[in-house]
Design a protein that fits this description.
By secondary structure, the protein is an alpha/beta fold. 25% of the residues lie in helices and 20% in strands. Helix 1 packs across helix 8 and helix 3 crosses helix 4. The structure holds guanosine-5'-diphosphate (GDP), magnesium ion and zinc ion (ZN).
Length: 292
């Protein structure tokens, strides 16, 4: 239904360019004979994700609201998603309190080397406490399991353009028929492309929020001291460190460094943590190659 907003809208103190976002719950009054609506009330959001505008206005754009989970689709080939990108995404999801799932897609294209990498990363993320799924959207491998993950929930679908998000959803829900892209086209999707989140209802219950062109979450300003809290396996050990303000860099009696020594924390995860602490990973979510 086409709706308009009634009067000035309060936006819960967020300086945002859009008063309403995909996933918002609202009250609508029917207006006129043509079945148009007026949005009269916006309900409080359980969560929401934002993107800061790239220009100087410092305004934020609310991408989506009220998600039950964030599904990050990645691939180890064409295009390759780097662990640093995955880890920043997962940490940001933790910061937003949105449970995250990692889906490794396009496994039909992996060579032996990438299969080994996949097995390693699978262990890493399961060990960190995440749900991991391995799929091939084109070969219909685990697409039923993918549908099961989505059933009955509102899922934010994220991941670099070209990893197969739309193809996966189409395999899980053929009625939807989301637009897919030729791999050769995805690099043309520059950072100036205007993008909107789209919400799609699933026939087996639930919704997916697709954000074409938005590769990850927007920036989330984290204090150095809280970054460790967004790595579940680091957070779990924090209370065992000798110093309560331990940043797990080189402090004596650090339980995280001890766990790293014992292979209880993955080196790739720890490196991502350090990169986030040092601000050495590029904050720009549009440039994933900077996350190496
Ligand atoms: N070989 C292979 N190709 C895939 C797979 N999933 C998607 N693709 C292809 O990758 C390209 C990009 O897919 P698309 O769903 O548009 O990616 P999105 O940008 O993440 O939505 C398309 O040409 C798909 O056919 C897969 O599992 N295996
Ligand atoms: Mg797509
Ligand atoms: Zn420590």
């Amino acid at each position: 239904m086409v709706c308009r907003l009634k009067g000035k809208f309060r936006t819960q103190g967020i300086k945002s360019t859009n008063p309403l976002a995909v996933g918002d719950f609202v009250e609508v009054e029917i207006e006129g004979d043509e079945g148009q609506g007026v949005i009269t009330k916006l309900y409080d959001r359980k969560n929401y994700i934002v993107r800061k505008s790239v220009n100087l206005s410092k305004q934020t754009h609310i991408i989506a609201a009220n998600m039950d989970q964030a599904v990050l689709v990645v691939s180890l080939v064409s295009p390759k998603t780097l662990p640093g990108f995955i880890d920043r995404f997962l940490a940001t999801a933790e910061a937003y309190s949105i449970p995250a799932i990692v889906v490794f897609n396009k496994v039909d294209l992996y060579t032996d080397v990438e299969i080994l990498e996949l097995q390693y990363l699978e262990t890493v993320y399961i060990q960190a406490g995440y749900t991991v799924l391995v799929t091939s959207a084109t070969d219909n491998l685990n697409t039923k399991a993918f549908a099961k993950l989505l059933a009955g929930k509102t899922s934010l679908l994220s991941g670099n353009s070209g990893v197969g998000k739309s193809t996966l959803v189409n395999a899980a829900e053929p009625n939807l028929n989301l637009r897919t892209q030729k791999v050769s086209d995805y690099h043309q999707q520059g950072m100036h492309t205007t993008t909107f989140a789209e919400m799609h209802a699933l026939s087996f219950g639930g919704y997916i929020i697709d954000t074409p062109g938005i590769r990850g979450f927007g920036l989330f300003d984290m204090d150095k001291a809280e970054i460790g809290d967004y790595f579940p396996e680091i957070f779990k050990l924090k209370s065992k460190c000798r110093f309560s303000d331990c940043l797990h860099l080189n402090e004596p009696g650090c339980a995280v460094l001890a766990a790293l020594e014992n292979d209880e924390i993955a080196p790739t995860r720890y490196r991502s943590y350090i990169n986030m602490i040092n601000g050495t990973d590029d904050d720009n979510p549009y440039r994933q190659d900077a996350f190496a």
